[in-house]
Amino acid sequence: MAAGGRRAGVVLATKVALDWKGEQPFRNGSRGRILKEIDDSLRRLRTDAIDLYQVHWPDPNTAIEETAGAMSELLRAGKIRAIGVSNFSPAQIDAFFAVAPLHAVQPPYNLFERAIEADGFPYASRHDLAMLAYGALCHGLLSGRMRSNTGFPDNDLRGNADPKFKPPYFAEYLAAVTALDRFAQEQFGKRVIHLALRWVLDRAPNTIALWGARHPGQLDPVRDVMGWKIDADAMAEIKRIVAQHVRRPIGPDFMAPPEQAAPRNHQAG
């Protein structure tokens, strides 16, 4: 990136505070781990600063104050330009705020996974935090491309971890997607993928909808997400459709990595 001269036109956001034992990730928010990861990331990305550096998961084996302190060190050193946390509860964010500034939060949020509405949204609004909602398409479920016979590789979490993609739940979610797609076409002249992304953007101000793209063509829906809004009546109908079809909703808790895969020596730096 540095060699191409395009760094000024790019916003770099990445995460920290995971570790690995073999192929198994586990949480590690220690100061030593964070200081090592930032230097590794800067080297790999060939840049001198990360625009938004986010703690991936809270680590119950490390005091939040230690994690926040390390992130504050990086901010003061100019190695990062903004701090974010992902998958933190409001109480955990309060503890983080007591030590370090915070600019963004990144929770899971989509039409099917809405737990953060109870406390996460109000908290972010009160503290003027940017909300980067990840999983906006619910792991592709809201893309409208999945069918009852869609299969997944063994190493795909949809095939080995997420109950939404297994019987009997998968059929319920697919029925909801079909109904939402019909509603999107009739009401807005759009498809369910556009509806799902617009829905996230219209739920609260200062919100960004994140989803993964493996090739440029998967970003084409952006064109049809902009320039329109979902009003309160449409929001209510979307909620009704989901409740009608998804009788046993499943949250994103399955994604959490282990708190600790193996004993580790705690290092403060």
Describe the 3D structure.
- The protein has helices at 31-45, 64-77, 90-97, 120-126, 157-160, 169-188, 192-203, 232-245; strands spanning 13-16, 18-21, 24-27, 52-55, 83-86, 104-106, 130-133, 207-209.
- It is α/β, with parallel strands linked by helices.
- The protein has a single domain (7-255), classed as NADP-dependent oxidoreductase domain (TIM Barrel, Alpha-Beta Barrel).
- Strand 4 (52-55), helix 2 and strand 5 form a beta-alpha-beta unit.
- The longest helix is centred in the middle third of the chain and has 20 residues, at 169-188.
CATH homologous superfamily title: NADP-dependent oxidoreductase domain
The major β-sheet equals: 6 strands, parallel
| Total number of helices | 8
Label the overall shape.
globular
Domains counted in the coordinates: how many? 1
What is the CATH top level name? Alpha Beta
Trace the largest sheet across and list its strands. Answer: 1-4-5-6-7-8
Describe the structure concisely for a colleague.
With 269 residues, the chain is α/β, with parallel strands linked by helices.
Keywords:
6-stranded parallel β-sheet, 269 residues, TIM Barrel, globular, alpha/beta, single chain, disordered C terminus
Which secondary structure elements does this structure contain, and how are they paired or packed?
Blueprint: E1 13-16, E2 18-21, E3 24-27, H1 31-45, E4 52-55, H2 64-77, E5 83-86, H3 90-97, E6 104-106, H4 120-126, E7 130-133, H5 157-160, H6 169-188, H7 192-203, E8 207-209, H8 232-245
